[in-house]
Write a structure and sequence with these properties.
By secondary structure, the protein is an all-alpha fold. It is built from 13 helices and no strands.
Length: 268
């Protein structure tokens, strides 16, 4: 994806996010020993939490996550434990251990569903999926999970900054999924599987109409309709392309194609 956003928790978490983001690259390169020097000894909750905070501020995100986990383990009924749960999830997110970030955020929500920081927990889950989106040549299950999680943020908390960011990301996710459909459709065309290709391109037009892939999808539908022997459909798709994307290269190509192979055909 071309656009990334940094996780931004509320209140005290916002301060941590700004500090941690500075060290995100450092933490990703810290190597396999980064989380190994945390001493799991009993200590009072404030000093344990403060040490976790210090590690996070210094970019030692896996150490910080382990110490935040210790806050909850050693002091499960203290007010600090609730904060530590979400801070652990955030630390794992910055360390790019997205599975643990999701697990910890989900656990926070299962225990504290009505907490004031619940919107951020949902947002952190969505971000953790979003950051794992791969290129269109790979399986898109994680992209669909990101889409589902982002929609949940927008549905539950539509007036928040998290929902505003989720809506921007949903546009990018849709464009990515449309790109995958186009890649498969073009493959089917090269194989001469015109009906299968036609179905993929129609998916783009019907499900992802606002994405950047729609003009090409309409052109490809013009091609596949001619190959399938339904020139009236080809004329229809070319007309839609001309009405919505006049002056584009895709329309020029579609017009020339129809002019050569479906001249005088009335669209159905």
């Amino acid at each position: 994806m071309s656009t990334k956003f940094t996780a931004r928790p509320l209140g005290r978490l916002a301060q941590v996010a700004l500090a941690a983001a500075t060290f995100a690259t450092l933490s990703a390169c810290a190597g396999s020993t980064e989380g190994q020097d945390v001493a799991y000894v009993a200590r009072d909750v404030e000093s344990l939490y403060s040490e976790a905070q210090r590690r996070l501020d210094n970019g030692n995100t896996l150490q910080a996550a382990a110490l935040f986990d210790e806050v909850e383990r050693q002091h499960p009924y203290s007010p600090w434990a609730r904060r530590a749960q979400l801070m652990s999830a955030f630390s794992y997110y910055v360390a790019r251990d997205y599975n643990k970030a999701i697990q910890n955020a989900q656990r926070f929500l299962s225990i504290h569903p009505g907490n004031k920081d619940a919107p951020y927990a949902y947002y952190l889950i969505a971000l953790s999926y979003y950051e794992q989106i791969s290129d269109v040549n790979r399986d898109q299950k994680i992209t669909e999970q990101a889409q589902t999680a982002l929609r949940e943020v927008n549905r539950r908390f539509p007036q928040t900054e998290y929902a505003a960011d989720a809506r921007l990301k949903l546009d990018l996710v849709a464009d990515h999924l449309a790109g995958k459909e186009m890649e498969i459709g073009r493959h089917y065309q090269r194989m001469g599987l015109w009906l299968a290709a036609d179905l993929r391109f129609r998916n783009v037009v019907e499900k992802f109409a606002t994405t950047s892939h729609t003009p090409e999808a309409l052109y490809r539908l013009t091609e596949s309709s001619l190959a399938l022997g339904v020139p009236a459909e080809a004329v229809k798709y070319a007309a839609v392309l001309g009405a919505n994307y006049p002056g584009t290269d895709w329309y020029d190509r579609a017009f020339k194609l129809v002019d050569r192979h479906a001249d005088g055909v009335v669209p159905s």
